[in-house]
Amino acid sequence: MKKVAIVGVGQTKQEASKPHQSFAEMLYEAVKAALNDANMWFDDIGNVVSASSDFWDGRTISNMAIQDVTGTTYKKTESKVASDGTYATVYGMMRTLSEYYDTTLVAAHCKGSEGNTRIITNAIFDPLYQRAIGLDAISGAALQARRYMTKYGITEEQMAKVSVKNHGNARNNPYAQLPMDLKIDDVLNSRMISDPLKLYDCSPISDGAAAVILASEDKAKEITDNPVWIRGAGYSIDAFYLTDRDLAECDSLRAAASMAYRMAGITDPGRQIDVAEVYDSFSYQELMWTEGLGFCKPGEGGKLIDSGRTQMDGDLPVNPSGGVISAHTVTTAGLVRVVEAALQVRGEADKRQVPDVNTAVAHGTSGYCGQGNCVIVLGREK
Amino acid sequence: MSDEYVTLSTKLAMPYRYVAGVIGSKFFTELRDNKKILARRCPECKRVIMPPREYCPKCFSVKTDEWVELSGEGSIESFTIIRYTEPKIQPVEPPYAVGVIKLDGTDGGLTHIIGDVDLDKIEVGMRVKAVFSDERRGNILDIGYFKPI
Lengths: 382, 149
Ligand SMILES: [Zn+2]
Description:
heterodimer; A: alpha/beta; 9-stranded mixed sheet; B: 5-stranded antiparallel sheet; 1 helix; 8 strands; 9% helix; binds zinc ion
């Protein structure tokens, strides 16, 4: 099969709020950065796949309002994925592979500051059987965290280590919202939000945008000498009702990863992958996702963080950018993982660069408690 | 900083009428009128599906065909204590406990409130039983909460 390459990336700083920009103006900044990066102009783009959420944008078919800033008005098609930007990347890859378009702009945005996170995420739940209980993204995740701790003996200290590591890494990332110098005790002593999750176990909700330009194999070589190849992509989804799942397991991530690894020819992910950017909305999730991505066995995410392997100076750094726990722009955070993983492969991640990256993984989730997962393997070689 | 910029504070108040369908209507009617909790059995794999659904999520091929009456007892697989306040979505004043409750005789269960309990005493594996609300309206809060037994 022919491959698709990332030939341009762009992102805005993720912040608690951006009152000087509408969501479209904010997205323009990311799109323009990606075009500049690829040395392209709007007219050079074949089509657009966007990722955003009507609930978060506070309007119906909210992608109707981004046509001007993605250069599609009167010119070309744009299709929206109402989910995480990693899925938009995979659809963009498929459109490019179809050979109908030789370039695809993938663009994601969200302004978490304009809505109410608790009310919006409560509306994910089934209106008849679940919603009236008052669950939302945080309390749902808390149920998963406790189940994970119960089944595998994961400790609050191990969860806190993720928060310390990632907020620390964010100090090297000018685009992250919450660079912080935390100690484990700071996390453990932070305010209880929804047991066992404390303030510093939880991501903030951010405003931000990201963009990636994809090109076919032949086109990529015309555009850049430094393409980042999509070596593999996979996605999968778990059951909807929390009571139909074992919340300590990330079966859909395992399935997504194995699909992506098969395509990329990866047989020993813990050794063959040099760096990973994962969707850690909550501290414990990074531990679970490293299991799901096959960096360790099921239940050993706690041991993995204890080993130091996922630290910046370890052999498999996870979230050099600071991760989602340091900046969480909904529907966009997965595309930010793709941008960051691509920068790592290019060796252009500045102060957060991991040495000698050949292969990087970007991971996105959708739904509560990581119900849906998407995995993208990027590499210097095809 | 944000005072420099104009902000429009408003609401999108959108009414919905979510239908419960044939299966859900039976479930909520029995809950309201007879304080019965019903689940649905799959004729192929024999799973007892809760919340009840018309189709088995594993088998797809045939409709579930049998109602199973539950004891209302189960055990707490996980729980959390919600400590923040959001009156628009919360049925009771926080702090309150919510659990993943595996119901006896089913392959699923309900996420529901754990009540009539000292919040510090809730444990995983604890046995609980449904307590019905006095005034029942045909919705999931006809079970007021699950109480440790
Ligand atoms: Zn079945």
